[in-house]
Amino acid sequence: MKTEDQILQLTDAQAENLIRLYERGEARIEKQINRALLSGGDPEYLQALQANVKTARADLLAGSREWCQKSVPYLYREGVAYADDMAFSTHLSAGFGTVHQQAASALAEATYSRMVDMDGVIGRRVDDVFRAVQLEAAEGAVLGSEAVQQSAKVMKEKLAERGITGFVDRLGRQWSMRTYTEMAVHQATMDSFREGTRLRLLEHGYDLVVFSSHSKACPSCQRWEGVTVSLTGNTPGYPTLAEVRSGGGHMLGPNCRHVYTLSPDERARDIKSNGNRRR
Question: Vertex 101, ends 183 and 231: CA angle to 5°?
């Protein structure tokens, strides 16, 4: 059975593939915007630069779609295998049935939707920059080049405060394209693995799990570390997974690195009912 460190290495490796893609894409977009800021407002040149930005954004979405279709199901399957390695029961086949296919597909679509949403925000922000450049060029015909240069300087300073591709989400949080991608992708990789584990454990007939422990966990996560939790809420006397998710902390949220394993109570019950350990 994989160790928790091996699981994190596995999910990080998959996440890094998409993060690197967005690093390169962000650099491409910033290069075009910098050229626009220095262009002097030539309409045809600006139009060409804006077309380059749209191509870069389209490439990012295509790469995101491919990543979601490959990496999310792959990590989901790894979560299923992790659950199988923990289980004592052997009545389940090693197949990837309809329920699992649908769950993996839903996770992939949810992740892709987040990247589409980010693209929309970035697209509007980039369009605003190009629009401002065009307006300043028009003003330059009246006010003179010195005024335009000063205006361009102010615009550059404002963009530098949060990055050219920086944006604020609906909750007022500031992101760059990279930081948002890192958050969304790391959450997607861990969610995929955990969901595969969760559904497979339920198929095996298990309900109680224990959260892993990490030295760098935040206080809101630490209170759940080592705690036995009911996946379904059907086992009296234990907090539920739904309570953990709605508790207002970071456990199972963005950047959470925790996984869960079978609780000692489930293992003891299995040993008693089966007479010996399968593994």
Answer: 65
Summarised one tens digit per residue, pLDDT across range 77-105 is 999 999 999 887 655 665 678 899 999 99
Opening angle at CA 60, ends 54 and 66, nearest 5: 140
pLDDT digits (tens, 9 = 90+) for 253-263: 888 889 999 99
> With bands split at pLDDT 50, 70 and 90, how would you rate the model's confidence at 134?
confident
Cβ atoms < 10 Å from Cβ of 78: 21
Give the Cα separation of 82 and 161 in Å (integer): 44
Residue 221 identity (one-letter amino acid): C
- pLDDT tens profile 215-271: 777 887 888 889 999 999 999 999 999 998 887 667 888 888 899 999 987 876 766
Contact between 210 and 201 (Cβ < 8 Å): no
The mean pLDDT value of the chain amounts to 84
